[in-house]
Design brief:
By secondary structure, this protein is an alpha+beta fold. It has one domain (about 5-125). The chain contains three helices and five strands; from the N terminus they run H-E-E-H-E-E-H-E. The chain binds zinc ion. InterPro entries: Uncharacterised_MJ1658. This is DUF5402 family protein.
């Protein structure tokens, strides 16, 4: 299976698992792999129908499922987070990002689940 086929398959698997878990229509409308100039890389899944309440209630399961998706796509799930549509309870995306040293410092400096109003952290592995 090539990379695009893998992304495609995993998009669909995760969508089905989230629908089953939340018992409502959740749409994963796009899954992307990315690489940034700073060295960060990873994957982003744009979502429709997911809300911050869903994360708070089902965080353990959603994190587990997303971690598995990330591993399937060979992205180390060291930093998993959701991006929120500002000023709304709606999620814009789920993200798994392998942070470069500089971005790690930026994210690790904040504490708690919401270092910024548009970010909800599901998992951040602290470095030594
Ligand atoms: Zn970076």
């Amino acid at each position: 299976m090539n990379l695009i086929e893998k992304i495609s398959k995993n998009r669909s698997v995760l969508e089905n698992r989230l629908r089953e878990l939340l018992a409502k229509p959740v749409f994963l409308i796009e899954a992307d792999a990315f690489a940034l100039p700073c060295g960060c890389h990873g994957m982003t899944i744009n979502t429709r129908g997911l809300q911050v309440d869903d994360l708070e209630i089902f965080e353990e399961h959603i994190t587990k499922y997303f971690k598995e998706t990330s591993l399937e796509l060979e992205v180390e799930p060291s930093f998993l987070f959701a991006r929120l549509i500002p000023g709304t309870p709606e999620l814009a995306s789920l993200n798994s990002r392998v942070l470069c040293d500089r971005c790690y410092m930026d994210f690790a400096r904040g504490s708690g689940k919401k270092p910024r109003p548009d970010i909800y952290i599901l998992n951040l592995v602290r470095r030594e």
